[in-house]
Design goal:
Helices cover 25% and strands 40% of the residues. By secondary structure, it is of the alpha+beta class. It folds into 2 domains: 93 residues, Nuclear Transport Factor 2, Chain: A, CATH 3.10.450; 152 residues, Regulatory factor, effector binding domain (Multidrug-efflux Transporter 1 Regulator Bmrr, Chain A).
Length: 264
């Protein structure tokens, strides 16, 4: 997963009747560890720190605020009155951060953001119901068998793993394209055509096991899209890394699923 972190040197300032003038600047940002702040309250410098530390399955958040009043006795009295306000601010910030953290979906599978390379392929499309896994497997075996036979006769090399795309999908019907990657300039029989999947940004999940529960990973990828506010930019792609004909242990089967996305 890619996480965005604020840039060092980012700042904002204010000028109000109550708080007077002031500035807060970001002095350091260490991903997944800490954020340090420098503050200036009208000539009175201060610093703040948000620190994250692993705590078993949880994360401990520590907030710190400090300022230097020097030998100014008035400044020291101001600190006494500020203590309660700072604690209120910390309580508010901790609650907001806790709410954001707990709103994050819990993902069973590891999902990452990747750059998907462009792929040239020969494929066959079929429209059918998504409700019958046995019929789907049989149809896929039939289409891949036809493609492999045609490419072998034409002496065209298969350049990567078989994959499938689903340009249209609903509870009642789906379009399924079974594809084999080939060179962009491959000479294929007239019945077929070399097509191209455009490369670009995508989210990726890895599934291990037989194909009966692939939909679980698809659902988590959908959740990830919603959580991150991402938009699809093409059909979902299933890449079958393991050949079931060569590996009989279904626990060792690996399938990569990609969802192409638009990037701002």
């Amino acid at each position: 997963m890619v996480t965005k972190h604020p840039a060092r040197g980012a700042s904002y300032s204010w000028d109000s009747p109550i708080l007077k003038t002031g500035t807060i600047s970001l002095t350091e940002s260490i991903p997944n560890k800490s954020v340090a702040l420098s503050m200036d309250f009208g000539g009175n410098p201060a610093s703040g720190l948000y620190a994250l530390d692993p705590d078993g399955d949880n994360t401990k958040l520590t907030l710190n605020f400090s300022n230097d009043t020097g030998m100014n006795p008035i400044g020291r009295w101001i600190n006494v009155f500020m203590k309660g306000e700072i604690e209120k601010s910390f309580d508010y910030a901790c609650k907001k951060i806790k709410d954001i953290a707990e709103a994050k979906p819990k993902f069973t599978y590891t999902i990452t953001e990747e750059i998907l390379p462009a792929m040239s392929y020969v494929g066959l499309m079929h429209t059918m119901s998504p409700k019958d896994p046995v019929a789907i497997n049989a149809q896929m075996a039939k289409m891949y068998g036809e493609l492999e036979t045609a490419l072998k006769k034409s002496k065209v090399e298969i350049t990567g793993y078989p994959f499938a795309m689903y340009p249209a999908f609903s509870e009642e019907s789906m379009d399924m394209i079974c594809a084999l990657p080939v060179a962009a300039d491959a000479k294929v029989p007239a019945k077929y055509k070399v097509e191209t999947v455009a490369g670009g940004s995508a989210i990726k999940g890895i599934y291990k096991g037989d194909y009966n529960n692939l939909m679980a990973l698809h659902m988590e990828l959908e959740q990830y899209l919603q959580y991150k506010g991402l938009t699809m930019n093409g059909a979902p792609i299933e890449v079958y890394v393991t050949d079931p004909m060569l590996e009989k242990d279904t626990a060792k089967w690996v399938t990569e699923i990609y969802y192409p996305i638009k990037k701002n």
